[in-house]
Amino acid sequence: MAVQYIEAKNVNLTFTPPNRMPVTALQGFDVAVGEGEFVSIVGPSGCGKSTFLNVLLGLIKPNSGEMAINGNPVSGPGRDRAMVFQEFGLLPWRTVLDNIGLAPELRGVGKRQRRALCQSFIDMVGLSGFEAHYPHELSGGMKQRVGIARALVSDPDVLLMDEPFAALDAQTRDIMQAELLRIWQEAKKTVLFVTHQIEEAVYLSDRVIVMTKRPGRTKTIIDIPLKRPRDYEMRVTPEFNELKLRIWNELKDEIDTQGGPQL
Amino acid sequence: MNANETPAVEISERSFYDRYESLILGTTFIVLVLVIWQLVPSVFTLSKGMKLFFATPTMVVGALGDLIESGKIWPAVQFSATAFGVGLGLSIIVALPAGVILGRSQLINDMVDPFITSINATPRLVFLPLILIWFGIGMWSVIVVVFIGAVFPLLINTYEGVKNADKLLINVVKSYGATEWEINKLVVLPNSMPFIIAGLRLAIGRAVLGVVVAEFFGGSSKGIGVIMVRASGTFQVDVVFAGLIMFMAISLVLTGIVRAIEARFSRWRPQETKNY
What we know:
The structure holds two protein chains of two kinds. By secondary structure, chain A is of the alpha/beta class. Helix content of chain A is 33%, strand content 23%. Chain A has eight helices and ten strands. Chain A has helices at 49-57, 96-100, 102-106, 111-124, 140-153, 170-187, 198-204, 238-252, and strands at 6-15, 23-33, 38-42, 64-69, 72-73, 81-84, 158-162, 190-195, 207-211, 218-223. A six-stranded mixed β-sheet of chain A has the order 6-7-8-3-9-10, sandwiched between helices. Chain A has a four-stranded antiparallel β-sheet with strand order 2-1-4-5, with helices on one face. The longest helix of chain A has 18 residues, at 170-187. Chain B starts with 15 loop residues before the first helix and ends in an 11-residue tail after the last helix. The A-B interface holds A 54, 57-59, 77-79, 81-83, 85, 87, 89, 91-94, 102-103, 106-107, 134, 136-137, 154 and B 168-169, 171-178, 182, 186-187, 190, 193, 268-270.
């Protein structure tokens, strides 16, 4: 097996909310992603898939486990990773341009250079002409385009995406998925994508990791051998639906059905 | 065609009155009150005692004019304004960083919270005798009274704002490697701005109150408050009113300044009024 680009081994995380019992979020969690690969993680709500992204991003310290990106161990935030957040996470008092320029600004890049640097990414995500707009003036889809551009500007090796399209309406989500594939092919990044939507995971990914319910572990990994570039029609092929069904069959035992109908 | 159609009613079609309705109504009412006030002595016959304590708007304007013309008011205005400005300035310098530190560090907050809560719960006038002993009668006593009045609302509001700062946005800048200082500058302070401005509004009120209280209760021998107390002692009601108007005018100007600051910091906010 080739050297893995993102490698997480035996990650354990337990946290104690105030006045509550400790919760084990991740238990012996492993992930391996090759360079340039698009890998999705699906799992039931609360299985720790978003938590794992925050651990890999360096915002949460795991209790134990090893993580490395391109051989460099992860210990805190770093330039080799950038996250696209579910709720966009745009600074509402900054314009589109200044939101996208956040990472270079923190690195001390001057204003004019920053502008030049951001412009190609603004064009890439299709936001030309909106540079001076504030987030509240944008639609949800456009906000997430800003989120993607902001992550790409920092030129990370790895793009982490935490249910980036969950806050969007169905049609906008379809468009953004196609846009993401286009941007991914253009920017050539390794992507780790968390979602609870099976169809989204199949459409976008090279491989899909199915997680167990909490405490989260890898249940199975499913290869998605669909050819690229992928288009919308592919979603109605029998092949596509078989993959969806396979993932669903793995996932359904993990979904907590307490109080609901038995599957 | 742009999706945002122009509103059906053109702005220019609205009449002068429609456009300035609230302004016209407000001004008219003030003028009406002043006119009635002015007419009171000529409509009602006031007793001798009442006459002594009564001042019409023209008398007040006259007294104010005299104070300004004779130049007697300027040292007092300068004194009061300096005490106000220095006291408020010091409270801003202390309260903003302290509020950020308290909001960001649970440890320090736990240490000093009882102290802040107890002083804030105490009427500030209680400290006046102590302050007079420590700082003597004069400018510094007034400054200290202004300071202890203004610092707490600003500190507590800043703290609340910082504590409620958006965790997601903090995580965003953290993930790009921001230091604690950068987190505060880029997220925490802008995010707390509405709280801080509300605190500033309160602090300005308390600071003006501090000047008045300190000058009324023997904190200094100068200032607009002192002129008012002395005039009151000699029944110069018109001069007392003149002092009152000075304080009113100052408070109005300061409110205007806070509004301007608020507008400067909320340009990015969605407009409150929308085209329906």
